[in-house]
Amino acid sequence: MAENNTKPSVLFVCVHNAGRSQMAAAYLSHLSKGRIEVRSAGSAPADSVNPAAVQAMLEEGIDMSAEIPKVLTTEAVQDSDVVITMGCGDACPFFPGKRYEDWKLEDPAGQGVEAVRPIRDEIRTRIEALIAELLPTG
User: Fold this and answer.
1) Active-site residue identified among 14, 23, 57, 134
2) What is the pTM of this model?
């Protein structure tokens, strides 16, 4: 990977790193076809990814059942060009020159797949817009 320093990188942050940030990361990996480096993490990671989020993504043909919530590190923020928090007020270390966004999204925790689908669909729309910005067709 070191030979390609032009690949943009995105970090998704959510407190538990179990739902929204995992769905966003899975979509970005899938839809950018590896052209964007993707990370996700949380300040208080859960033990496992939200099963309703996993099910909702499987309906889109994306399997994220093997993902494990990760703890947010300063290095992960430092190594990313874009840092996106998921409307959960997570505090990220601030580094000048990085792009920070906060996506206000419903929390899927404890909800069934029916409640997760609209959140998933909103994430997809935002990811498609993000890819269009980060990978301008040229």
Assistant:
1) 14
2) 0.91
